[in-house]
Amino acid sequence: GRLGDGQVMVEAFGPQAAELFAKVKNIQIVACGTSFHAGMIARYWLEELAGIPCQVEVASEFRYRKVMVQPDSLFVTISQSGETADTLAALRNARNMGYLASLAICNVAISSLVRESDLTLLTLAGPEIGVASTKAFTTQLVALMLLTLALGQVRGSLAVDKERQLVEELRRLPARLGEALAVNAAIEQLAEYFADKNNTLFLGRGAQYPVAMEGALKLKEISYIHAEAYPAGELKHGPLALVDSDMPVVTVAPSNELVEKLKSNLQEVRARGGELIVFADGRAGIENGEGTRLVNMPHIIDALAPILYTIPLQLLSYHVAVFKGTDVDQPRNLAKSVTV
Ligand code: F1P
């Protein structure tokens, strides 16, 4: 009910949010793992839609280095558990560094991160049963889009019609996510193909690059297949040397202004015998064919595509893990909250 309600949406971040957001000229996001990838996506939104400069860093680096704090910066942490030691340490350091305030985007209401932050937005995804973060990630993205809208609104940097369009599309998001889940059966069929593979590349451009990073992390975490993500334009600067018929190349390719460039990157892969698995909507103009396994996605406005395209990558890791017989909920060597 809060969406698109103007001031009410801003107040969802806390009573002092409107006054504070009006002063914000820069955003510093700090998080770990999957939550870091959510922050990487948010950078595209905050800069493109709300016109606010944004830096994103893993907490395990941020907490130990000398940071030059930009004036009037809001310090944003993202965490499923709210207990990740590096993220908490970064928040505690940030208190004496001159940030305007701290905002936690967190899934657990009773947590250290929420207790110690000035503002909080709870994702309320419910308990994450498995170690690997999945539904927390999608809800973090929605929360970060709301932050983008709230900041754009208060600062007057987001055009009213653009904001209205985004709010309408956010309202339709649950239905779109339902449509995306319909690709489950097609992805289950792909799982067998990965079972004897030792390496996988994930590619994306723009805000789909961090989506590819998250896809690679999920595959590593639960199916133990070595996976790396690259911005597709970086292929020619090294990773192309790895491509052969044993290297699946997974690509998230929603139709947008970058898709033609992405398609030429995919041709470079095909020319070297690489096998493509492509998630794309009908407008992207990518065809199923030799060496290209296409999974059709519903169309969505580009700003929300990262949320939608995360789903098939999570499903892919899940089905590969189930096919290989690894423990999807309790991967070896990993802990739900990394508290040390
Ligand atoms: C960060 C994180 C998760 C990952 C795993 C280990 O946790 O890296 O993204 O899935 O559970 O910790 P959090 O700060 O988001 O709780």
Automatic annotation (TrEMBL):
Its EC number is 2.6.1.16. It is found in: Cytoplasm. GO terms for molecular function: carbohydrate derivative binding; glutamine-fructose-6-phosphate transaminase (isomerizing) activity. The active site is at residue 336. Keywords: Aminotransferase, Cytoplasm, Glutamine amidotransferase, Repeat, Transferase. Residues 17-157, 190-331 form the SIS domain. GO terms for biological process: amino sugar biosynthetic process; carbohydrate metabolic process; fructose 6-phosphate metabolic process; protein N-linked glycosylation; UDP-N-acetylglucosamine metabolic process. GO terms for cellular component: cytosol. It catalyses: D-fructose 6-phosphate + L-glutamine = D-glucosamine 6-phosphate + L-glutamate. Transmembrane segments: none annotated. Catalyzes the first step in hexosamine metabolism, converting fructose-6P into glucosamine-6P using glutamine as a nitrogen source. Homodimer. This is Glutamine--fructose-6-phosphate aminotransferase [isomerizing]. It comes from Azomonas macrocytogenes (Azotobacter macrocytogenes). The lineage of its organism: Bacteria, Pseudomonadati, Pseudomonadota, Gammaproteobacteria, Pseudomonadales. The gene is glmS.
